[in-house]
Amino acid sequence: MKKIGLIGGITWQSTQLYYQLLNTKFAEVLGGQSSCECIIESVNFADISSKQASGDWDTLHKQMTDIAVRIEKAGADIILICANTMHLSVPAIKEKINVPLLHIAEVAGEAVKQKGCKKVLLLGTKYTMELDFYKDILKNQFSIEVMIPNDEDREIVHSIIYTELAKGIITAVSKQQYLDIIKKAENDGAEGVILGCTEIPLLIQQEDCDIVVVDTTEEHAFAAVKFALD
Predict the structure, then answer these.
(1) What is the CA radius of gyration of the chain?
(2) I need a surface site. Which of 8, 12, 25, 95 has the fewest CB within 10 A?
């Protein structure tokens, strides 16, 4: 079994989902009392969120890189960032590590392809939705047409992530707001929706939607299990 390294705390709500998914999948595949060999370094999300809001990406890239280097030195065979947005730091990280980094957008693209979708809605933080680092992978590597919500709806999606989901707050009102946004995209031709923030699966699941739902938290964790057991 290869050892999985996790950069967590972005937020701890989704990091606990990763830990649960990894261990559940290992037990399912290997049976008995099997569980995941992993290393987690968890950050203070208040610090990360503040730097994101101020646009201090250079400091964040260095912070993520330093953590990845420490995790590799601690014995990790592969590294996962347990957050979609902080994959902005991947180019900087890859310059300093020698083990693979499993990119969540590439995992999402593979999942969309396997599910037969060509046009999808991308939900996530405003950084994930508005910047090109994530959409370009989906478009250029997988020929997926990516839709994002309008300005007002992007603010709704982003605000719920930071003010509610990051704190473990789940409300029926916010769920319905997300479902309304997904329905708009469905009416405009979306065949699926990528939950491109690792907290969104706390709120939205496949049974809530008529179109395909790609849970990036689950897909990322299961891809790590596959790597660890190959």
Answers:
(1) 17
(2) 95
Residue of 103, 91, 150 whose CA lies nearest to 126: 150
Omega cis (within 30) before 11: yes
Give the whole-angstrom CA distance, residue 107 versus residue 102. Answer: 8
The secondary element (H helix, E strand) that includes residue 151 is: helix 151-163
Q: What integer best gives the mean pLDDT of the chain?
A: 97
* Domains defined for the chain, CATH in brackets: 4-103+219-229 (3.40.50.1860), 104-215 (3.40.50.1860)
- Asked if 39 and 67 count as a contact pair (C-beta separation under 8 A), the reply is no
CA within 13 Å, CB half, 85: 29
Tens of pLDDT, residue by residue over 128-186, are 999 999 999 999 999 999 999 999 999 999 999 999 999 999 999 999 999 999 999 99
